[in-house]
Amino acid sequence: MNRWLSLGIVLAILAAPGALEAQATGPVILRLTGSSRGPSLGNALVAIRGSDAVFSNPATISLNSGTALSVSLFGSASTLGTLATSTRIGRVGLAAGVQWLEFPFDHTVLEYTPGHLVSAQGTSATDLAAMGALSYPIKGFQTGVAVRYVEERVAEDYAGGVTFDAGVFRNLGNLDVGLAVQNLGQDLESGAGPESPLPTRVTLGATLPRVLVGTFFDLAATAAIGWERSWGATAGGGVELSYLPLEGYGFSLRAGIRRVSTKQDPHPWPLAVGATLGLDQFRIDYGFEPSVGGSTVHRLGLRIQ
Amino acid sequence: MSSSIGRLAAVSCLAWAGLVVGCLQPLKLAHDDSAIVLAEQRLEAPNPAGPGSHSVRRLYYGHGTDRRRAEFRDSITITTGTVDGTKLISTSPENKRSRRDYWGFDFDSLPLNGRIWYPDGDGPFPLVLMVHGNHNMKDFSDPGYEYLGELLAGRGFIAVSVDENFLNGNLRGENDARGWMLLRHVEVWTAFNDSAGGPFHGKVDLENIGLIGHSRGGEAVAVAGLFNRLSHYPDDATLKFDFGFAIRALIAIAPIDGQYEPANRPTPLRDVNYLVIHGSHDGDVSAFSGLRQYQRITFGEGEGFKSAIWMYRANHGQWNTVWGSTDGGPRSPRFLDLRGLVSEADQRQFAKVYLTAFLEATLKHRTEYRPMFTDHRTVGGWLPKTMYVTRFQDASFRPLADFSEDVDVTTGTAPGVRLEGDSLSTWKEAVVPLRWRDADLGHNAVWLGWNNRIAGDDTTQTGRPAAYAVSLPDSIRRAWGVTGRSALILSLAPTEAVPSPRKAAEDSAKGKNAKASGDTSVARTSPPAKRKAEAKDTIPLDLTIEGTDAQGHTARLRLGRYGTIRRPIEVNIYRRKGRDAQRLGRQSELVLQTFVIPLSDFADADAGFDAGQLSSIRLLFDRTKAGTVVVTDIGLSDLDPSFLSPTRGSPQ
Asked: Label partner for A146 (CA 20 to 30 A): which of A302, B8, B153, B366?
C-alpha cells in the first residue's frame, strides 16, 4: 500500500514541473546536504547508509544507529551546523536531525541558492530545520517518513512551516536502492521575500556499498538521479576508496560529481572531494569543494556508530 | 596564519602516524616445543598419509538437472533422485524464493549429488562419505576434499564428497537436514551396491561405513549417527526413519555443536568410533566445541574408542582446499592473524595422517595405528611440527571420578569411590569452560591448586607435597576385574593460576581429620593473595602418579612420561590486540590431555606392587612447587595393548 502511495506522490510531483519551473523556492537550508560526505559523493545520498541518513532518506535510518554532527564553512560568509541521531527499537527506526545555517541574506537575489552562501554581502540571516523520522520494514522494503519544522529569520522577518519527506529503500544483494521524496508541504513565506514553494525533490539512487578491490581495499560507489522543483533534473554520483589495514581502522578518499542546474546562479562547482578517518565506531569526515569566485567550502564531520 | 596551518599540519601528521602505527600489530605465537615432543617416530607402520596400492578412479552421481553444477548435470555416470527435506528445513518465504531462484529447486526436491574417488579393484571397499559445512553457497565446497578422496581411494576406500551446497548460506538450524541427507546418500549407495551391471555392484563394504563432516558438517555426522538408529525424526514424528546402516566411524573436523538439538537436547551418541579435530586458530568456530560431542559419546559393551586432537596454529578452512586460510571471508586478513597459521599443506598433512589412520583402524580394523590416538608423540615423524593435545577414551573405560555425578567433592562416580585432598590450596569441582564466553563442555572436572612453599622469609622452606587421592573399594576392583593389563586413564591440563604459599599449620582440606589425628605435618594454606602482574611460569609442570595396592605397596610414575603436560597456550586468532579476549572471553582454550598409564608400569616401578589389588591412586604434586591443574575422567580401562605406545619414555 505504501509503495503505491509513494509512487502516487512521485507521479504527482513529476507532473508538476511545468507550472512551477520558473518560481523561486526557499528557504535555502532545504537545498543543503546534511551530511559532511554529501558533495564528495555527488549528493547522491538517497541509498546511503549512515547515521545522518535522516537528511536524505528516512527509510534508511534504521540501518545505522548512531550520531553524526558536522560543520560546513562556506568561505568566510556562512556556516552550517548539523546534528543527527538515529536508533532502532525492534523493527522500528527512529531518528532526529537539526540543521542550522547562518548566512548573509542578499535581498536583491530572487532565488537564493547554495552558491550565494560564499558571498559575504547581505543581512545576517539564519535558517533552522529540525526533523524527526520513523522507519519500518514492509514486505522486504524499508519505508520511512519524516516531518520537518523549518524556519527562516532575516533581520526581524520570520517565516516558518512544516515539510514532509517519505522514502523507500531496498537491498538487492550487492546493491542498495533508495527512493525519496523530500520537502513536501505547503508553500512557505521566505524571511524577507514573497511566498515561495518548497524545493520539493524526488530522488532515485543506488549504491554499491562495498566491493573488494584488494585484500585491504574496498570501493563503494553511489549514483542518483532526480528532479527538483525550479531546478529540474538532477544527477550525481561518487566513489569512495577505503583502505582498511586492520579491523577498526579505516582511511577513505572520496570524489563526487553532480549536475549543476543552469538555473543556479551563481554556479557552484560540480566537483568535490573528501576523506574519512575511521577508528572503531568513530569516523571523522572532511569534505572540500571549490565554489564561486575562488571561494571554497570546507566540511568537517564526526560520526559515531 | 601560516604558523597555525603548520600546527594543524603537524597535529594531522601525528594523528595519521598514530593510526598507521596502531595498524602494525606484532605476530604473537607461543613457544613451540614440537622439536622435543615430536622428536621421535615411535610407531612402526606405513605412514597413513602415503599413497595406497590402488589406482584411483573417479566419477559423479547426481540428479542430472542441476542448473548450477555442471559436473552433476553433464558428467554423471549414475542418475539419482531427489529427496524431500521440507520437514527438516525452515526459513522465510522470501529466503526460500531467492534460494529457489538461484538453485532452480526447492527444499522438496533436494538432489543427491556426489563426487566419488574409488579404488580400481573388486572390493568390497569400505564406504566413506565426506560432507562440507556452511560457506558461501555460490562458492561450491564439495571439491575441497579431493586431497582426502584421492588418498582414501588409493588406500582402498570408496570416498564420496557429498554436495550440500544448496543448504549453505543463510539457513539456520538446518544441521539435522545435513545429517539426514548423508543417510539418504548411504541409502543410494546400498542401491549402487545391489545394482547389477552398475560400476559398484558388490564392491561396497556396507558393513563398514564412515562419515566425515567439516564445520556444520561435523555436527551433521553426529546427527546422522543418531538418526541412523532412530525410527522417527525427533522433531516431527510424522517423518519416519528406516536407516540402520553399519556406520562404524564418525569424524568431525572443526565442528560446531548445538546448532541442531534433537528434541531440544544435545545430540547423544552411543557405540560409534569418533574422532574430532580442531585448530587453535579457527577463525570461524573459535572454540573446540566438538569436545562437547566427544564428551557425549558413550559406549556399552564391545569395542570402540573416541579421540580428540587439538592442533596449534591450524585454522578452520585449510582442511578444505576451496575454503583455504580466510575463515572470515576474503576480508579476513584485516581482522584475522593469518600470519600465525601453519601452511595449508601442513594442515592437510595432519588431516591425512589422522583421518586415514582412524579409518584404517575403525573400518579396516587395523590395530597398528591405535597408539597415535592415545598419544600423538608416537607419530612425531608423520606430523607437521607444531603442538597438539590428545583426548582419548575407549569403550572399556569406566570412570572412577568424572566429577559430573553430584556436588560432593569427596565422592567419586563409581559407588564407594572416595576423593581426598591433602594440603591443596584449590579443590573445587566445576564445569570445564570453552574458549567462548559463557560456553562450556557440559562436563565437569576438578581444579586442584597447590603451593608447597611455606609462607615466610625463608623461600626454601617447603611442606610436604600436596596430593589428591582417589580410593576405590574392593567391590569395584572385583566387579571391574582390575588386573595388571588394566590401565589408569585420566585427562589433565594445567592452568595459569598459582596459589600463594601455604601457611605453616594444618591442611585446609582435611584440617579436621588432621587435628583429630594429631597430624601436625600437614600444612594449611594462606588465603589467596591479590597477585601482582608477574611473569608467567614457563617451567614445565609435572607431577607424580602414585598407585597403592591393598597391601600398602606403593609405586610412583612420572605423569609427563605418558603425555605432554603443557601450560595454557595463548592464542591470538585476531590481529588486533585485545580482540581475542574481548570477542571470545578467553585467551586460551583449556584442552585436557589424556594420559594412559598401564597398571603394569606401576608393577614395573615397584616389584612388590600388585596391580590387581589397586586400592588408591594419588596425584602427588611433588615435581612442581606450585600450580593448578584441571583433571577429569579418572578411570580404569581394560585397554587393548595395541593402543599403548610402543615406548613410553623414562619412568622417572
From this structure: A302
Q: To the nearest 5 percent, what fractions of chain B are helix, strand and coil?
A: 25, 25, 45
Whole-angstrom distance, CA of residue B20 vs CA of residue B531: 35
Which single residue is written with the C-alpha cell 547515521?
A51
Alpha-carbon span B201 to B204, nearest angstrom: 7
> How close A212 comes to chain B (CA, Å)?
8
Domain-terminating residue out of B339, B360, B394: B394
Question: Do B504 and B555 share a domain, yes or no?
Answer: yes
pTM of the predicted structure, to 2 decimals? 0.88
Nearest to A212 among B22, B330, B574 (CB): B330
| Chain B residues within 8 A of A245 when measuring between CB atoms | 23, 334
Task: Tell me if B651 is assigned to some domain.
Answer: no
Contact B575, B447 (CB under 8 A): no
Residues B275 and B411 in one domain: no
Contacts of B338 in chain A (CB under 8 A): none
Residue B539's pLDDT is 74
CA distance B535 to B135: 41
CB A120 within 8 A of CB A147: no
A120, pLDDT greater than 90? no
Does some domain include residue B3? no
Cα–Cα distances in Å, from B29 out to B281, B343, B380, B569, B580? 11, 15, 21, 9, 14
The answer to whether B579 contacts A247, with C-beta atoms less than 8 Å apart, is yes
User: Cell 556562512 sits at which residue?
Assistant: A78
- Please state the domain extents for chain A: 2-304
| Chain A contact present for B530, CB below 8 A | no
- In one letter, which amino acid is B366? R
Condensed to tens digits (0 to 9), the pLDDT of residues A217-261 reads 999 999 999 999 888 899 999 999 999 999 999 999 999 999 887
3-state secondary structure B47-79: CCCCCCCCCEEEEEEECCCCCCCCHHHHCEEEE
Looking at beta carbons, which residues of chain B come within 8 Å of A248? 576
User: Which CATH number applies to A2-304?
Assistant: 2.40.160.60
User: What ipTM was assigned to the predicted interfaces of this complex?
Assistant: 0.79
Residue ending a domain, choose from B394, B425, B446 = B394
Question: Do both B430 and B335 map to the same domain?
Answer: no
A·B CB contacts under 8 A? 37
Domain that holds residue B175: 56-394
B271 and B141 belong to one structural domain = yes
Same domain for B376 and B260, yes or no, is: yes
pLDDT of A211 strictly over 60: yes
Residue B203: give its domain's CATH number.
3.40.50.1820
Contacts of B335 in chain A (CB under 8 A): 246-247
Out of A212, A216, A249, whose CB is closest to B22? Answer: A249
Domain count, chain B: 2
For residue B72, tell me if it sits in a domain.
Answer: yes
The CATH number for B463's domain is: 2.60.120.430
- Residue segments in chain B with a per-residue pLDDT below the cut of 70: 1-6, 8-9, 12, 505-538, 647-652
Residue B357 shares a structural domain with residue B286 = yes
B407 within domain boundaries: yes
Residue B334 forms contact with A (CB below 8 Å): yes
User: Which of chain A's residues have a Cβ under 8 Å away from the Cβ of B19?
Assistant: 249, 251, 277, 279
